[in-house]
Amino acid sequence: MEKFQTLTSTCVPLPIENVDTDQIIPARFLKATTREGFGANLFADWRYDKSGQPISNFVLNNSTYSGQALVAGKNFGSGSSREHAAWALAGYGFKVVVSSFFADIFKGNALNNGVLPVVVSDVFLLELFAAIQVDPTTTITVNLEQQTISNNASGVVETFEINPYKKECLLHGLDDIDYLLSKKDAIEAWEKAH
Amino acid sequence: MTKRTLFDKIWDAHVVTAVPNGPTQLYIDRHYCHEVTSPQAFDGLRKRGLKVFRPEKTTLSPDHNIPTLLQDQPIKDLISKHQVDTLTRNANEFGLTMYGLGHSKNGIIHVIGPENGLTLPGMTIVCGDSHTSTHGAFGSIAFGIGTSEVEMVLASQCILQPRPKTMRITFNGKLKSGVTAKDLALYMISQLTTGGATGYFVEYAGEAIRALSMEERMTVCNLSIEMGARGGMIAPDETTYYYIKRREFAPKDEAWDKALAYWKTLPTDEGAVFDRAIAFDASAIEPMITYGTNPGMGISIHSSIPTLDEIDPAGRISFEKAMTYMGFTPGEKIEGKSIDYVFLGSCTNGRIEDFRVFASFVKGKKKAEHVIAWLVPGSWAVEKQIRAEGLDKILEEAGFALRQPGCSACLAMNDDKVPAGKYAVSTSNRNFEGRQGPGARTLLAGPLVAAAAAITGKITDPKNI
Ligand code: SF4
């Protein structure tokens, strides 16, 4: 996994609530047997029309907005457990998703793929959406070590929560399997005892 | 002694290590696996040069990406075929049990696990699929995981999980006749919203839950994820033991007695504390249907769609988007709306009792001519039982035909896609945009409301026929 330390980036705004993983990557794109290539179909049904032409008013097709941070409405990533959603976001180039609330499985999947879900307050989120609307070049800075996110247009800084273990993993680019494989003795001991 | 919940008891019994300041390393008793969320996990094992650590604890079944007609012939869609073949190849290479296409035990993984006695009380169960929560009906901790986690389980039979909070949802009173477990669940999700139980593991309790059959309990636990819960569970009781006892892989003889004695210690201790507890009056629940694009957008079949004023300001963009997508107007009645498709099936409502309910309703009636109905058993065992009970004849006389088992139109990875703009009353679990095909408009309901819609061609209260 790639390391994550700090990121300063412009934002792609998606002010919709309850964006489910079926929207992030529709089921018909889940037929692949590798992790690559999902970025091209990120938000496919919002991004392309039936004939495969870009829908101009969807934010990913609007060159005004770009960046490695997706800013989304409350309860992002609900529904299906498909990790393909995290692969699609990472494949497209997002390193951070900012929202006021994330679904559990999505959050875990994102962290396992080096995409950092940053939970902010409702107020911070609304102000960020407003700032991006006024000025699409608005940037945010996410500092994982400090656990802070700043809206660089207003200067408002918030701290965010992250599990200390997951933070270490991201900072150093480690994944859970390395940990689990190092615990084989404990696993066998547990099995013996049960 | 400290009072513990059902969840606490199972969780505590499966802790291998605790990462300092981090998640718990949890031992997994049963791992289910399907073709869509596993190939990258097996690739991961190959890249690391690892074997499957405990092959006997993993069971595979292709279900998501398979046709529901002509399963004896090669899959026509070559990309789908490759994915299903990849599962077979991985099963062979890693020495895992797989119930492939055509096998008498094949079916939707959440249907065949319980059916064969692989799902038992007190277990920890995972699968790369959010509806793994279904298995919680047996009094197990069962939850969906991502593909990276599938790889962890294959490699170590363990997973790293932060301990969720606990919630008890009690349903007091009795369900009215004509109200199904699906209605109960859709009602609950409409009250709590799609994110209302995020971060929690839910235990369902109360008179109305105790009165449910195992299959109905599975329907309720299945839908836990639709309100964001990590999982849902119901304490085992006589209903549970009776269901399990006749199953092929359930413990036998002395092992049964021993297991039973353990299971009986599992129910939540009197006075145990939940992080959150809520209660509903089951007798107030009416047949439900969804009108929007997430499972929380449900109403009683007699109600009107909310008006914009009734929606929280922050949610209005999403609500209006849903209204446009569904072709509905805020404030209008849902009853009487014309529909085009009916889907009976999925891990939510694709078991024998669902087919019994559907068949007994349509018996002696005729399917509305314009309605296309897909009746898809959850497994081959369900299919066999449908035929054994003669339900297939009843369905046929009413103008319905059975398809072959699989997830089918629940997620429309195969050809069972509802065309853009068409309305489908579905017994499945998700009404997200495009879930049943690009542009498809899904109305989630129970098998009885689905049967009524199939007969009248409209959204209809089953009681009125
Ligand atoms: S029936 Fe639907 S919800 Fe259930 S496992 Fe299949 S796709 Fe998932």
Plain-language structure description:
The complex is a heterodimer of chains A (194) and B (465). Chain A contains eight helices and seven strands; from the N terminus they run βααβαβαβαβββααα. Chain A is α/β, with parallel strands linked by helices. The model of chain A has no long low-confidence stretch (mean pLDDT 95). Chain B is α/β, with parallel strands linked by helices. Chain B has 16 helices and 18 strands. In chain B, the strands form five sheets. A five-stranded parallel β-sheet of chain B has the order 5-4-3-6-7, sandwiched between helices. In chain B, helix 2 crosses helix 5 and helix 13 runs parallel beside helix 16. The mean pLDDT of chain B is 97. Chains A and B meet through helix 4, helix 6, helix 7 and helix 8 of A and helix 2, helix 3, helix 5 and helix 11 of B. Bound molecules: iron/sulfur cluster. Iron/sulfur cluster binds next to helix 12 of chain B.
